[in-house]
Amino acid sequence: MEKEAALDNSKSDIYRVITLSSNLSRPFEMCLLELYDTYLLTSDLQFGFKKTLGCSHSLLAVRSVVDYFTNHGSNINLCEEV
Asked: Quick check: is 62 in a domain?
């Protein structure tokens, strides 16, 4: 397909449909969080889907646990879910 044909605004069959649900759900989510934030409690050991926490924090927690037990003479076995 030529570049000019790909950019032709008169041909709707060459464009993908974009949904508006994500644009509508984000403000709705923010309103719910504003109203019910104090009721939505999670564990301190949960790292995903929390503000200011991510993968690096969970890796640090695992590393700290491994270091603690190995420094106290225990063996540690880790496995990966495939």
From this structure: yes
The sign one gets for the Cα dihedral 65, 67, 71, 75 is: positive
CA angle 3, 8, 12 (to 5 degrees): 125
Length of the chain: 82
Which range marks the domain in which residue 48 is found? Answer: 3-71
DSSP 12: G
- Reading the chain (82 residues) residue by residue, the pLDDT tens digits are 555 556 677 777 777 766 666 677 878 888 988 898 888 888 887 887 777 888 888 889 999 999 999 999 999 998 887 7
Do 25 and 33 form a contact (C-beta atoms < 8 A)?
Answer: no
Structural domain includes residue 57: yes
Q: Is residue 78 part of a domain?
A: no
Single pTM value for the model: 0.46
